[in-house]
Amino acid sequence: MTDPRWLDADEQRAWRRYLRMQSELTARLSRQLQTESELSLADFEVLVNLTDVPEGRLRVTELANALQWEKSRLSHHFARMEKRGLVVRENCPSDARGAFVVLTPAGRSAIEAAAPGHVEAVRRLMFDGLTPEQVDALAAIADVVLERIERDAAGELEARTRGA
């Protein structure tokens, strides 16, 4: 095994600042949503994914993939959201084992009520402090990192497939 490629001082500083920024931003946005709308950030993520599709419904596996959640996490979270009337489960008529997560009118109302405060918090905490050039740089950096993550995941899948 080769020696680890340790981060240099600049990389370590950038990495730790990124982790702190991500953690603090997530915590603040979570508190804002909970306080103003009684939605968790996880609730909001589920509802956003459902409102992004015209029918307001996704297969459970599609939603889990979009959120990068394990199916068990989605199942537990979905059950809590279903008790609050935000979503319902519908069986898939063409696949007896498949199911859909469906946005309810109450779920749509909840996200429509929460979105203005949430976007204002995102704008205030993140974008109002950045120049247009910094926003472009942030998007470009995210694109590069996400592309590398996707390639790495594809390589892992290919290696598992070869090993199976």
Key words describing this protein structure:
single chain; 164 residues; mainly alpha; 3-stranded antiparallel β-sheet
Structural write-up:
With about 160 residues, the protein is mainly α. About 70% of the residues lie in helices and about 10% in strands. The chain has 6 helices and 3 strands; from the N terminus they run H-H-E-H-H-E-E-H-H. A 3-stranded antiparallel β-sheet has the order 1-3-2. A hairpin with a 2-residue loop joins strand 2 (about 85-90) and strand 3. The two termini are about 25 Å apart.
Give a summary of the structure in a few sentences.
The chain has 164 residues and is mainly alpha-helical. It has helices at 9-37, 41-51, 60-67, 71-83, 105-125, 132-163; strands at 57-59, 87-92, 95-103.
Task: Record the SSE blueprint.
Blueprint: H1 9-37, H2 41-51, E1 57-59, H3 60-67, H4 71-83, E2 87-92, E3 95-103, H5 105-125, H6 132-163
Antiparallel strand pairs: 1-3, 2-3
Beta-strand residue percentage:
5-15%
Q: Roughly what percent helix?
A: 55-70%
Whole-Å distance between the termini? 24 Å
Would you list the SSEs in sequence order as H and E?
HHEHHEEHH
Structural class by helix and strand composition: mainly alpha
Tell me the total number of β-strands: 3
**Sheet of most strands:** 3 strands, antiparallel
Radius of gyration from the alpha-carbon trace, in angstroms: 19 Å
Largest sheet, spatial ordering of strands: 1-3-2
- Low confidence ranges: none
What is the typical, i.e. mean, pLDDT? 92
| Total of helices | 6
Q: What's the shape? A: flat
